[in-house]
């Protein structure tokens, strides 16, 4: 890191950071490329971008021309491309413009685009997301002192400019202003989904303007309005990605005037990415690929609006070597080596059906004429290729680094691959192994080179390993970096290896020997011609190198005719190399089961090398080349995309797993194709419910019987004996009696072993209940002929999740513990804000009003909302939270997560965050809505003496604080600036009141809220005082008392308008 000590100060002294305030850009029509309010113009002619995404650093250099010609033949005229900083500046100040035979030759990429007669859009980052390692950031950034990525941080901006300046030297001549194809450059990427530091984005825009002479634009997820506001840069064209219907509407509503211009959907998704994991699937194979006709309808909508688009991806390519990124929504979800994306052009460059459909669609937009499709060679099929073990990975290690504590991968000067940590114990230790602050990412544990287990953060609850070490034993921890997070949290800290100390029981282990093993290519000293016949492979062996070879006819060597998909049969997890090229990871857990081998990298005699991390006793592995890509989905009917929450944040759609109540089999549906279904509302019983995996095992038993191992048959029989299994059968019977075929139950229709599926389901739960034809409410603790009072005392009314299950559906049937019908509720329907019907009645009981009163009293929800007389939209946030404040959940986080639908919020789940989940919920609400009643809460006072100075932030730390807010209603307000959250502050512009000296010992202010108690005339106020932690911070305030809300009296006088920064949390 000597570079960090010498070059960075030099950059600072040279004044390379551009003052953002000195740069503004007006986008006008000019002689090369520009735009007005509705159109782009290229050389003075109106121009619609018919775009598609392809990234050169994912495609072999030799195939660039082929892929571009196929893009043009489909009807595209513009290529959008990410540029990955981390592939170019592999170490501080060390640039590689020729990685993997020229894939980093960015200038040559734009020359090829120009040769093909296409236009281009540059997406340089420095953050690109793109499912690449750390979103394109170099790993060594984490070692820069005091750096924070994606912020207005001097060190980060300095290094970003150094990167962008170097990049500009390679592509400057290809800008449209210099006769080249590059029309625009994107500022950052989807920054509005991350934060709202406008100083940062303005500074970055200024840096881009310094080095590039083309139009700039921003690109943010358009389905969520705050994304557009947060990501905007004044004077820079603002665009969206994802759903164009919502995105274009929100762009018109929320984009500021200086950022408005022609519409562009910068990432129009026609399919989705794939991640590794036990529950991940490849959507195209599993039948949940996006609907092709709807994809084309969306493109037509864009073009009919006069807009432009970029299909993401047109051709995805491959995350060669270890270039993949990952997602994290409670567990790591590493992206597969294949970035096939189910795109129109597959990973090998062959067209799918959607390619031809898009070609037919785009033909009229290209004046009825398109180039012929280039010839495509059939792919290579090979015979079995036997791979034999050559050496153990630990047999020939590089020089060690020694330290009194574990060093992270980055501290060792390493970015990717593996790091081996070794400790020799001087005495005995027994207990649970704790590796730093947790696995980063996959830790294989060995004692004296014998494998003891694996700790992997792709699982919500990684394996616990207990060890007994004796004096002289060697503990080895092989840590694999499976891909740094590129989207989701935590983006700031993406160090790999071991971060923190290692313990066995309470004993901290030290010192350590550490070995950096990046292995971008196989070790040079491996003997490929011989196999080690003396090497014995056991179930607990350490990682092992295997080799094999195969030959090809000279006529196809180095051409696309030699393209193949290579599958490693018998392998568990490892890395595949062919002729020294690192093709990426394989992993039997799926869904990817074969690696793309570009034919241009093959010759007459070819060498295969495999690093198998878990040999599992295999004395040989078998490779085989095929023309068809092999995918493996864990459950044949499963369609769970492990990146669904990521997909949600970028405007994509979901699937719903329904249970056929006759066949008792699952099926998956997109929202638009979902049949009519009934849904169950019930209370969970500990140890009795049947999970998705439990239910699948019972189905397997029914289908395969004696073919299952005895222990699985026994387990299935135990599951069938649970009351939860009987409940499923009784529910199905009740659904059939209601003349419905499909049902949904939260216990077995969600695979909760996948945190991403659980997140997607919880964020979709409200809409699933709302869109159901019938909700069956099962009271397991209510006897037949129970009185209203007995029904109202059911524990069902005390549970957090059942609130939305009561309010969302339009029809509910209530059942007692033996599934005898009790009552039926059909809510009022609304049209044009007018109630047209009141269909609220009770079977066998004409006194429906008494039942309605019981429902309202037991649920703490006014009857007008329970019965549907009044729209839930009219209820304030404070009122809704008061209803929930009387309920409990088993996990504290679920008190917040169960309110997502009721409040209209979508956010990731982070189990383990405790009460912080409720804080996050309030923050998300403030960023999305202007309902100020979210601040109208009161906490119980610790004592009368503390009530006047119980300082707090403006957000409630506990849901119970809303119990007295059930009568709070909102007040209409006009022309009031929207509130914004800035880190841990809430920015408010408002007229405030000042307390007179005789009213308070120190000057405080009263902030009026646009809400009031329903029986009062005046609005409520928060009493605020300047924060002692504000530093220079004039305008920083906290609540004086969390115990009270104030109604303004006539003696208080209004001041001038003020800008306030309110602390969200107590300091």
Structure, described:
The two termini are 37 Å apart. This protein is globular. Strand 42 (829-831) and strand 43 form a beta hairpin. The chain is built from 24 helices and 52 strands. It is an alpha+beta fold and 1067 residues long. An eight-stranded parallel sheet has the order 11-10-9-8-5-4-13-12. An eight-stranded antiparallel sheet has the order 31-30-33-28-16-34-29-32, with no helix packed on it. A seven-stranded mixed sheet has the order 36-35-38-37-39-40-41. The longest helix is centred in the first third of the chain and has 18 residues, at 154-171.
Low-confidence parts lasting 5 or more residues at pLDDT below 50?
5-29, 634-654, 829-846, 944-948, 1029-1034
Please give the CATH architecture of the largest domain: Alpha-Beta Barrel
Cα radius of gyration in angstroms = 31 Å
Strand order of the largest sheet: 11-10-9-8-5-4-13-12
Topology at a glance:
Layout: H1 2-13, E1 33-35, E2 40-42, E3 45-47, E4 50-53, H2 64-74, E5 78-82, H3 85-88, E6 89-91, E7 94-95, H4 99-102, H5 106-115, E8 119-123, H6 154-171, E9 182-186, H7 198-211, E10 215-221, H8 225-231, E11 237-241, H9 244-254, E12 264-269, H10 292-304, E13 308-312, E14 326-328, E15 332-334, H11 353-362, E16 385-392, E17 401-403, E18 418-424, E19 429-435, E20 442-447, E21 450-456, E22 466-469, E23 474-480, E24 485-488, E25 502-504, E26 507-508, E27 512-517, E28 544-551, E29 564-569, E30 573-578, E31 581-587, E32 595-597, E33 605-612, E34 621-626, H12 644-649, E35 655-660, E36 666-670, E37 677-681, H13 692-704, H14 710-720, H15 723-737, E38 742-744, H16 755-770, E39 774-778, H17 788-792, H18 802-807, E40 811-815, E41 821-826, E42 829-831, E43 834-837, H19 848-859, H20 863-866, H21 877-884, H22 894-897, H23 900-903, H24 916-928, E44 968-970, E45 980-982, E46 985-994, E47 1005-1008, E48 1011-1013, E49 1020-1026, E50 1036-1039, E51 1046-1047, E52 1053-1063
Parallel strand pairs: 4-5, 4-13, 5-8, 8-9, 9-10, 10-11, 12-13, 14-24, 37-38, 37-39, 39-40, 50-52
Antiparallel strand pairs: 1-2, 2-3, 6-7, 14-15, 16-28, 16-34, 17-27, 18-23, 18-27, 19-22, 19-25, 20-21, 20-23, 25-26, 28-33, 29-32, 29-34, 30-31, 30-33, 35-36, 35-38, 40-41, 42-43, 44-48, 45-46, 46-47, 46-52, 47-49, 49-50, 49-51
Helix pairs in contact: 6-7, 8-9, 13-14
